[in-house]
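Task: complex structure prediction.
Instruction: return structure tokens for all chains below.
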Amino acid sequence: MNKFKINIILIIFVLIFSIYAAEIKIFLKSSEYSSDSQNVGDKDTQYSQDETETSSDHLNKEKYINMKWIEPDCFIMGSPEGEGDFDEHPQHKVCLKGYYIDRYEVTQKEYEKITGKNPSVFSNCPECPVEYVSWQEAKEYCDRIGKRLPTEAEWEYAARAKSEKRYYWGNNIDTSYLWYSANSNSRTHPVGKKKPNAFGLYDMLGNVREWCLDKFSENTYRLSEINNPVATTGKYPVLRGGSWLDDENKVRCAARASEKSKTKDSNIGFRCVADK
Ligand SMILES: [Ca+2]
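Output:
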């Protein structure tokens, strides 16, 4: 074979190889494109699914922001013999259906958004708990956003977060968990700055006392139902958790208090619960 023939064969071989390589490149590009198209399609699907979400679904999602779902359970409510005040006895079994509860006390910002008012004494602190609200006003706020005040049993179960100790962290005061008389500098503080309990709830003890749905009686626990109790026969509504103003005895999980339903004070606020 002469040199000329060899060159012709080489050129033909290179040409065939080039055409083949170009075809592979086109094929790979088109695969890439179709895979991109698939991604776009997925996004579109996701978007159209979002589009089908109704406005009430959206409102429901917003409703449960910053709320914690509490599973149905039973617990021992009140204080053991030899501990706490008369009204915390007898210790008794209570069983609760599940409910959502606010992780934080209702803030001034949240209250003002719904009611257009900020009645707080320690105002100009949007993230501080709203205070100086009567029981009726607290109840109305929760009602307006499709929620309600917690029953006293729901409040204590949520505060304890399965602890049977005086406080949800143990039997001795620990200032990393709460604002009370010894560390509050005589005022409220922005919610959620201290450690939460085991359910992820903040300021259940201290900062502001929290209105509950029940009416207070010293004998409530002697007459209590086991399932989802709510006392309606007492005179004044219950307050729980103690506040920036209270000493270590009043910020215990089992400590109970009450005020006239019209009472407003700079250490009284609330949080809401919601049913599923
Ligand atoms: Ca509190």
